[in-house]
Design goal:
Protein name: TM2 domain-containing protein
Number of strands: 0
Shape: elongated
Pfam families: TM2
Structural class: mainly alpha
Keywords: Membrane, Transmembrane, Transmembrane helix
Strand content: under 5%
Subcellular location: Membrane
Largest sheet: none
Order of helices and strands: HHHHHHH
Membrane topology: Multi-pass membrane protein
Distance between the termini: 21 Å
Length: 112
């Protein structure tokens, strides 16, 4: 697929999701998806910033604005939520990327 930083699990999911696309649709999908997907290491870094007083950035990046505001105002639920996000950063990123996959597939198959 040529997307940097992609995990084997994500690659398998993408291969299954894009199996029915033709070459032109696949090019469009890769272009859209690579611009919207999030990298697991980036989410980990944003989560670690929560311990420096910037709690909730990872939630904003993952389009969870309400949770981002709550984390920011409560200092990451007194760091407990930040610790939980630190543990779950990979699954949070995977869920976001799967949602982006579905959105990009709808755009590509629907003709934008």
């Amino acid at each position: 697929m040529g997307i940097p930083g992609i995990s084997p699990e994500e690659l398998m999911y993408l291969q299954h999701a894009t199996a029915s696309l033709n070459e032109e649709q696949m090019k469009n999908f890769v272009f859209l998806y690579s611009g919207k997907r999030k990298n697991t290491q980036d989410i980990l870094l944003f989560t670690l910033l929560g311990f420096l007083g910037f709690a909730g950035i990872q939630r904003f990046v993952l389009n969870q604005v309400a949770m981002g505001i709550i984390y920011f105002l409560t200092i990451g639920f007194c760091w407990i939520g930040t610790i939980v996000d630190l543990i779950n950063h990979k699954s949070m990123t995977d869920e976001y990327n799967q949602r982006v996959t579905r959105e990009c597939l709808q755009m590509v198959m629907g003709g934008f």
